[in-house]
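Hi R.,

Here's the chain you asked about this morning:
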Amino acid sequence: MDFNAIHSLLTRAVETVTPAAQLVVRQHGDVQLEAAYGWLDPETRRRPTQPDTLFDMASVSKLFTVAAFMTLVETGRVALDQPVRTVLPEFDGPRPIQPYEDPLKPGALVEVQRGSLTADAGAVTFRRLLTHTSGLPAWRPLWQQADAAAARRMALETFFAYPPGTRIVYSDIGLILLGMSLERLTGQRLDVAVGERAIAPLGLTHTGYLPLPVDPCQQLPANIAPTELCAWRGRRIVGEVHDENAWRLGGIAGHAGIFSTAADIAAFGQCFLDHGTPILRAETVSEMTRVQAEFEGLRRGLGFALWSADPEASSNPFSPRTFGHTGFTGTCLWVDPERDLVVAFLTNEVYHGREGRGIGPLRVALHRLIVQEVDMSLRRTVGNENVSSAEDGIPA
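And the predicted structure, written out as tokens:
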């Protein structure tokens, strides 16, 4: 394959959009492209990004929580349509429906639905959490709580934003509760449960929570892509989770906290093309990647975002069977079964802050170039086979 146009795009991108980036493209189980771009010290252009540089995966972490949870579903430890309260008894009873705090506009509120007064937390199932149809708000300021225990209580006791099952509202709170459920069901801390069930079986040696923020030998930031200059923490974030709520929860949470490389994330995505081997069954993968909920153009599987018809969506250049996830820091994983294709694209685009972000258009442009090259390569291969057949006297 000829990836010159992709290299040109990403070489420009690290000058204008994101300081650092990694890309891995796999097709038919083989790595077709693995490349790193930019610098970990962009102002001085020191320390070039390496293939083993760790990136904060942000919400792509959710897929690991979900995969680990689904191993428990397979063994009958828990059921998708089982109420969450059976595992988390604190999550029960009537709750008010009201606006929630806007995570991107301090002091503003987000109102999803008017006219309904209460929702029953006790009726919310794990399937609702996994499809983001639980009625829970997208976000709550857990980071403002005094400690991790108080933040967990806030998540467990939160109000609702809309009646469960009536729409899709992507919710960090729902995946935080899923992570807490995984801990209760296994008796293990979340990082241990996810590690044993979703990371170690795949041999993902560069994937995990809580990377070391400092290289003790050199007293320099470790080989980790820095993220935002955080006003609240008073420092540039390097080697600690960017997400404030995950940080308050100790850096280990169901919705965020994993650091990884594009190679490891692509290998994780490949697992789902390989029918779940070695962590899940084929029927489980089919259930996770089929349409479970649909609302106003949004389509969700179990944990996975599904292909979108919106031309500005990063999944749009791929085939309609595509599934994957994005992360707020600038990360994404997409799996296209029709092309037998996995794309892991990691950036620290949030390094420049949360205003005027360019990661959305960059993802779309990159994915279009990848699809164009993959499809063109297939046409070239078919054309060469036809020529060979004709030369051998075999009808093409």
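DSSP finds ten helices and 20 strands in the chain.

Let me know if you need anything else.
M.
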